[in-house]
Amino acid sequence: MQLRRHDVLSGAIAILDEYGLGDLTMRRLGAALGVQAGALYWHFPNKQSLLAAITDEMLAPVTVEPAAAAAAAWDERLRTLARRMRDGLLAHRDGAEVATASYAARLASDAPRHAMADAFAEGGLPVQEAAMAARALFSFILGQTMDEQSRMQMDSHGALDPSDSPLFESPSAADYFEYGLGLFTDGVRSRLSGRL
User: Fold this and answer.
1) Confidence at residue 67, expressed as pLDDT on a 0 to 100 scale
2) Could you give all domains of the chain from N- to C-terminal order, each with its CATH number?
């Protein structure tokens, strides 16, 4: 059987989901796929490029918008993009950590961030400011989601006191996330109204 890029990517995501980022090694992936680790480098020159491909796969649904969503007001469109990104990261163990590393290395696709910048620009921000706002929102999503995933993992390993479990926090991680999104959209409105 010929090993395809998609097989390598699917195998890597399966290991990530089951064991986490710390146990996703090229050797383990090769063993899971029944090949020597060296065969994987035909498809991905290094582990960082593999992590970037995983990030792109996790976040591919972020920018796929039905016509109705694309026609929505800029702020609702932005919220939808941000929620999809959070959902994509939370759907995979260590998803936010993988994405953060991939974006820090400038290897993952910028399509989600560009879609956010477009929404900010539709709201009235000049293009350069819209790009900066999108980068700030992107960082917020990654950081908030990484914190959420880390706390959930700590809780699942018994590292948190039961009274500190994120399962019973109020406000919840989702509430904090929505509050942060509101700050971004309100901040844009405020900045624009100050220029009138």
Assistant:
1) 59
2) 1-45 (1.10.10.60), 58-193 (1.10.357.10)
